[in-house]
Write a structure and sequence with these properties.
Elements: H1 10-14, H2 19-28, H3 31-37, E1 48-51, E2 62-65, E3 70-73, E4 79-80, H4 82-97
Antiparallel strand pairs: 1-2, 2-3, 3-4
The structure holds zinc ion.
């Protein structure tokens, strides 16, 4: 492939991030910040905070562990780190827009 000088290499547009890249992002991005950017208020002690789950009706079901940089919900099977949060939020956003979402995301 020739270098046009403007368009990025087509291969870079379809390549997946490496495991190392995902691990670096997960270490650098706080789940707490992602949750709050979603408009979910968190309360509680310093290490563990709770809030409303965006995927189910459990008002204080969402738990954010700031030390482990993870989230989980007692009302549904949601859980993981920053990468899983973004994947789940974006998947729901796209599916809701397409009217295919069956989980009733907010
Ligand atoms: Zn939930």
């Amino acid at each position: 492939m020739t270098d046009s000088g403007y368009w990025p290499d087509r291969r870079s547009l379809v390549s997946r991030p490496s495991k190392a890249e995902l691990d670096r992002l997960a270490a650098e991005i706080a789940v707490e910040r992602l949750v709050e950017e979603r408009g979910i208020a968190l309360s509680g002690e310093d290490t563990v905070k709770v809030g409303a789950c965006p995927w189910c009706d459990t008002v204080a079901g969402l738990t954010v562990d700031r030390e482990a940089n993870t989230f989980s919900c007692s009302g549904c099977d949601a859980g993981g780190g920053p990468v899983e949060w973004v994947l789940a939020i974006e998947a729901c956003r796209l599916l809701t827009r397409s009217s295919f979402c069956v989980r009733g995301c907010r």
